[in-house]
Design brief:
The protein has 697 residues and is an alpha+beta fold. The protein contains ten helices and 35 strands.
């Protein structure tokens, strides 16, 4: 009897152990590599743009700049690195060489490098200083090396490819481990190649022999991912505005523009925004943007730093869509991250910490409609353990399922965080979230992709339980984390706009205070009561104040009022795109020249003589790039007949970063008429422009 009992107990134990042996799901689709998984974990890191452009006030140098211009007066690599780390970033990518060809390290490949600058009497090495500071403070290091070089006489020849790869070898062997190597898509164009002011075009598909260049990177840094607009490790998201598409799939199949073969600088940027649900490769998106309008430091952008609240919004629209976010922090001419940038980053981090420091799902119970094999290995406990190596999943034949999260009491929240177990592929194609209210389920959120991370942020919800539904999946889904959070409520910022008469009108639900001198509004600043006369233009800042609290600052810069202006000359393609759209102070409307008209001149009569100090143009504010003006000429006249060229040049990087372009004139010019000539446009026979304005003395 005793033996029989022992046998029975042993059989029970054996069967119990057998039920625990449940095989994991079969991987689905293309999978991330180990280096890509490590990259996904980093999520948030800095971009550092510092070179001669910092001292010439340019976005793209032409290659003719003297190395002697580079001389930061108080360069502090630790201040730059700590500004990044204190904002919650886990890495930093340094622009070691931009398109102008100036190298921030003592390279043996060119004389156009830091050894020829006054910085540290030619003995400096910015790359080493940044890398050393990153190692000291625990940040991972990445390298940006521009494939384009507007300085060297060899660009466009095979000799340059040898130089480029030697530079790459120096950066990837002399400075330790690198987590990402960044290749820009800007290649070929005008420059001062060895002193020759000319345009050089290259075949982007074949010139760099990317296959062997990528092979070199993998040999030198096997754990690094390679970034370009087609990968192969990480892809560009298709915009420099700081957001990704929704959905944004980690899978992607590169396609070239206009049916061409895909190549760096030639991919379909709109496809990159979303990726492809059933793409052929695991090439996740990296969302890139700058904390300022430009990528390099410009003093006139000191009051245009993205607000903390704006940075929070970008966080949700990038990291919250499953991409990584690389935020540019351009050091100023001292070689420091500017105080305004640091202040915005500090407040941003406070908001993020206040939101995510407490997980309201901890202490809740989670019940699933199905658990794979009823095994504890795949139970809902894995969703709350903060371990991304454990996960919940279902049986193979269960693709539509749900999870009910029940809180100990009624709970307020406005943020929900979801993560898939991506080592098995991106398996969820649709999801929705309901709350329990009035004895029934009510949907308040839904989407498609989850991937590495999905953050839902919306209005305040109050309930004692939520239901997360997997509404579409090609195979059994996986989730590794669910967390619930409450972001502190912020006062809504005021809205500033200009009336047809040139006045400024500010609207809000609270007490508005404003300044016109560029300073931050305080509780001692002027109170807004009536429209503000603002014909001359300038910068206005305003805030809402309530019970000791204040909103984020709204900053708006306006050109001279256009209420007296008249369009004297400009062809138009359609009635709703006529030239009057250029001067309607509406960023959403635009002028388009007639496709058959080779003359793309715009002539404007101010109605009176103005003292011009600069002019501005705003490209069309959509994702469409065709027709964007890249090169211009700007003329002035007192009588509309005799014209003088006041300025000519290019709008650097305007295709990828279509922000307002402000061009300073060399001297103050009296003019009653201006003529703006679109010399070159991108990928079209017509020119498109949203706004044209001038600033006066």
């Amino acid at each position: 009897m005793k033996i029989k009992g022992l046998v029975t107990i042993g059989l029970i134990i054996l069967l119990s152990c057998k039920t625990e042996i449940v095989e994991p799901p079969v991987p689905f689709g293309p999978l991330p590599t180990e280096s890509q998984l490590a990259w996904h974990d980093i999520e948030f890191y800095a971009f550092i743009h510092l070179t001669i452009n910092t001292f010439t006030d340019k976005e793209w140098g032409f290659g003719d700049e003297s190395p002697e211009l580079f001389n930061p007066t108080a360069f502090d690599a630790e201040q730059i690195v700590l500004s990044s780390k204190n904002a919650g970033m886990k890495g930093l990518i340094l622009t070691a060489k931009h398109h102008d060809g100036f190298c921030l390290w003592p390279t043996k490949t060119t004389e156009h490098n830091i050894t020829k600058s006054p910085y540290k009497d030619g003995k400096g090495d910015i790359v080493k200083e940044i890398v050393d500071a990153c190692r000291k403070h625990g940040l991972k290091v990445g390298m940006y090396l521009s494939p384009w070089d507007r300085n060297t006489a060899t660009y466009g020849t095979q000799e340059y490819i040898k130089i480029f790869r030697t530079q790459l070898t120096e950066l990837l062997t002399n400075y330790g481990d690198v987590f990402e190597v960044w290749f820009d898509g800007a290649n070929g164009g005008s420059g001062y190649y060895g002193g020759a002011n000319e345009e050089r075009k290259i075949d982007r598909l074949s010139y760099y022999d990317w296959e062997n260049t990528f092979k070199l990177v993998h040999e030198l840094q096997p754990n690094a991912v390679i970034f370009s607009d087609l990968g192969p490790g990480v892809r560009w998201v298709g915009t420099e505005a700081g957001y990704s598409g929704d959905p944004c799939w980690h899978r992607y199949t590169p396609h070239g523009r206009n049916g061409n073969k895909p190549g760096i600088g030639e991919t379909m940027y709109l496809e990159a925004l979303n990726g492809h649900r059933e793409g052929d490769f695991w090439i996740p998106a990296e969302t890139n943007t700058s904390i300022r309008p430009g990528w390099f430091y410009h003093k006139h952008e000191d009051d245009k730093v993205k607000s903390p609240e704006r940075l929070v919004k970008l966080y949700y629209e990038s990291i919250g869509h499953g991409t990584n976010l690389i935020l540019n922090l351009p050091p100023d001419r001292r070689g420091l991250v500017h105080e305004n940038d640091v202040a915005s980053l500090t407040k941003f981090k406070e908001i993020i910490d206040a939101t995510f420091s407490k997980d309201l799902a901890q202490g809740a119970s989670i019940k699933a409609s199905n658990v794979r094999g009823n095994s504890s290995r795949y139970s809902t406990d894995n969703l709350l353990d903060k371990n991304q190596q454990t996960y919940w999943t279902t049986d193979d034949d269960i693709t539509v399922s749900n999870l009910i999260v029940e809180f100990p009491k009624e709970t307020e929240f406005n943020v929900i965080n979801l993560r898939e177990y991506i080592p098995l592929g991106q398996r969820i194609w649709g999801w929705a979230i309901d709350k329990w209210e009035d004895n029934s389920w009510k949907e308040f959120a839904k989407g498609e992709s989850i991937g590495n991370r999905r953050l839902w942020k919306g209005g305040l919800q109050i309930t004692n339980k939520i239901r997360i539904r997997i509404t579409e999946a090609p195979v059994c889904p996986t989730l590794t984390e669910i967390s619930v959070h409450l972001e502190p409520v912020q006062l809504a910022p005021p809205i500033i706009h200009r009336t047809a008469t040139g006045n400024i009108k500010i609207t809000s639900n609270g007490l508005i205070r404003f300044t016109l001198d560029g300073s931050e509004p305080t509780e001692q600043s002027a109170i807004y009561e009536n429209e503000i006369p603002f014909e001359k233009g300038g910068t206005i800042k305003s805030k809402v104040f309530y019970k000791g609290e204040s909103s984020e600052t709204t900053t708006s810069t306006f050109t001279h009022s256009k209420n007296l202006w008249k369009i004297m000359e400009a062809s138009s393609s359609e009635k709703n795109r006529e030239a009057t759209k250029l001067i309607d102070d509406n960023k959403q409307t635009f002028w388009q020249s007639h496709e058959q008209d080779k003359n793309k001149d715009i002539v404007i009569d101010f109605g009176k003589i103005l003292n011009l100090k600069s002019f501005s143009v705003l490209p069309r504010q959509t994702e469409m790039k065709n027709g964007i003006i890249t090169h211009y000429e700007f003329y002035t006249s007192l009588d509309g007949e005799n014209w003088k060229l006041a300025k000519a040049g290019e709008f650097s990087n305007i295709i990828n970063n279509p922000i307002e372009q402000v061009v300073s004139l060399d001297t103050i010019i009296k003019a009653k008429f201006i003529k703006f000539k679109a010399v070159k446009v991108f990928d079209a026979n017509y020119a498109i422009l949203a706004e044209l304005g001038v600033m006066v003395d």
